[in-house]
Amino acid sequence: MKVTTLGIDLAKNVFQLHGVNAYGKTILKKQLKREQMAAFFVNLPPCLIGMEACGSAHYWARKLQDLGHTVKLMAPQFVKPYVKSNKNDAADAEAICEAVARPNMRFVPIKSVEQQSVLALHTVRQSFVKARTAQANQIRGLLAEVGLIIPQGIGHIARRVPELLEDASNELPGTFRLLIQRLLDHLKVLDTQVDELETQIVKWHRSSALSSKLAGVPGIGPITASALVATIGDAKNFDNGRQVSAWLGLVPRQHSSGGKQNLLGISKRGDTYLRTLLIHGARSVIHWQSKRAETDACSWVAGVLARRNKNVAAVALANKNARIVWALMAYDREFRSDYVAARATP
Question: What is the pTM of this model?
Fold first, then answer.
């Protein structure tokens, strides 16, 4: 009988398949190696294929779509409840096959090669930023062990450390000076790599009309805008702006029962990198808001700051910016700071 729904448990070299027919009966259980995948699916009639959104999932989704199949990706946490008994490749493939057929399942949009390449720039840049921070902290910690204290802030490392190494009065051994100089050179290399990757991201941002449009929103710059465009893709995959906020973990987490609503802090689900960029951008807006003239005191940010602390205001502004981003992307609009939403007449 014809396979109508197929679940694939992805791996590096060995792939487990589980297929059912139109009546839900299992008719295919098969294990394939990587080099066998293309030949198998070329000869398989078009069907619905489900996979977890994990490593190489977007690559295989594009390949299988080109062969005429309908491919849907799911978050692993949504597939896990369908795993029966012990966990193994066959059970995972069966669970994926079961989950992809559920009418209320949430799916992950398939990313293009361009989206993945831009996100790769962001990922590598962020790893270099973390390595640079770790290197700066190591230099600061080693100097603190010999009584030389460097103020917090990565900018103080490049200014103060060379002066300490040239100062003969601090009685540092020659080997220790050479070690700190080597770490300082490594820090400069990391800083150069971060700047080069940031230049590439900004270049792509300027070539993208949609990314340039998002940069007009206060609190969103080239880095955040390019990451949003590459990650969200088609904004119409979301029904409204609140779904984007919830997807980024910027809405309250609920613990409600018995008809009584209990809202906690933000859920912090979804993409941590995007959420961090939006909140840091909101903090920048709040910082400059405190320096503006009294004529701007009636702005939305000023109103929130009058009621709540800066951290709450930053998350609230990040939430608002996420909804604005969805509106700009879904309806192809330009950002207007004086825009007022039209209210429906009764």
Answer: 0.86
